[in-house]
Amino acid sequence: MPTYAILGATGKTGGALLDLLVKAPSTHINAYVRSKAKLLDQRPGLEKNKNVTIFEGALSDIPLIASTLNPAVNAAFCVLGVNENIPGIRVAQDTANSVIAALCHIRSKDIHFEPPKLVFLSSASLNAAMLSEEPAAVKAIITRAMSHAYADLRFAEENLRLHQGWLDATFVQPGGLTEDVQKGHKLSVEKMSSGFLSYLDLAAGMIEIAESGTYKWMGVSVMPTAKDVKFEPNAPPQLLRGLVWHFAPWLYWTCRSLRIVS
Q1: Which residues have C-beta within 8 Å of that of residue 185, sequence separation ≥ 6?
Q2: How far apart are CA 46 and CA 52, in angstroms?
Q3: Could you give the CA distance from residue 92 to residue 11 in angstroms, rounded to a whole number?
Q4: Is 177 within 8 Å of 155 (Cβ atoms)?
Q5: Strand partners, 3
Q6: For 213-237, what is the mean pLDDT?
Q7: Alpha carbon 24 to chain centroid distance?
Q8: Phi, psi of 52 (to 5 degrees)
Q9: Is 241's pLDDT higher than 90?
Q10: Which end of the chain has fewer beta carbons closer than 10 Å to its terminal beta carbon, N or C?
């Protein structure tokens, strides 16, 4: 029975991974969350599923993360993150740091321990090759509108790459994401899609990567095969907010102190 760990099971990507993996009766899932109540509110009855073990606590709790990534785990999906350009954000860095520390903790007790394959959610915007066909104006807007989030992802990837000698990681780099039904996907290491990709198709692509045993230390884009994927209505205001937080990061903290943004 293959075992997968999901770090960030209450997020949209983590939830999509859960929805697909629970359909396989021969698969066990270790779901890490910061709030078990939130997870069970999203997916009532999940606690009764014998193939799902829920781990709740702080990301900084290394023994907890080590339990989530125990030696039985074949692959770990690292999908913690936010879809906002928050100044100073370091969710991806904290995830990478905790995962590395947890795996080192396990390894210190078992020299024969084989770490799980890490499938780390990133962005196509960090891959120059995948952006090569995009107009310069589009690249300028996107990279600025998510500059703080991309910096966080970049630092996380750099940290993970320091451990190439004993870890196996793949960086999943999709384009824009939206909530839609599963319509089909394909993988590419050369380009990204100009349209949107559903979270369910992203999850299916990540599972394919985990099962393939390939793409070691590569950036892989998951692209939709369907032409009618739903447009994400929150994308334009998200880009606008991101540009504001890029050029005036202090304004974000002012708005947050006034509880205008969360």
Answers
A1: 197, 201, 202, 204, 205, 208, 222, 223, 224, 225
A2: 7
A3: 14
A4: no
A5: 28
A6: 93
A7: 21
A8: -125, 125
A9: yes
A10: C
Average per-residue pLDDT in the chain? Answer: 94
Instruction: Tell me what percent of the residues of the chain surpass a pLDDT of 90.
Output: 83
From the list 66, 44, 52, the residue with the least C-alpha distance to 21 is 52
Q: Which residue, chain included where needed, has tokens 């790459």?
A: 161
Cα within 13 Å of Cα(196), Cβ side: 18
C-alpha angle 231-234-237 in degrees, rounded to nearest 5: 125
In whole angstroms, what is the distance from residue 32 CA to residue 57 CA?
Answer: 8
Interatomic CA distance for residues 244 and 227, integer angstroms: 32
Residue 96, pLDDT > 90, answer yes
Q: Is the pLDDT of residue 131 over 80?
A: no
**Per-residue three-class SS string for the chain:** CCEEEEECCCCHHHHHHHHHHCCCCCCEEEEEECCHHHHHHHCCCHHHCCCEEEEECCCCCHHHHHHHCCCCCCEEEECCCCCCCCCCCCHHHHHHHHHHHHHHHHHHHCCCCCCCEEEEECCHHHCCCCCCCCCHHHHHHHHHHCHHHHHHHHHHHHHHHCCCCCCCEEEECCCEEECCCCCCEEEECCCCCCCEEEHHHHHHHHHHHHHHCCCCCCEEEEEECCCCCCCCCCHHHHHHHHHHHHHCHHHHHHHHHCCCCC
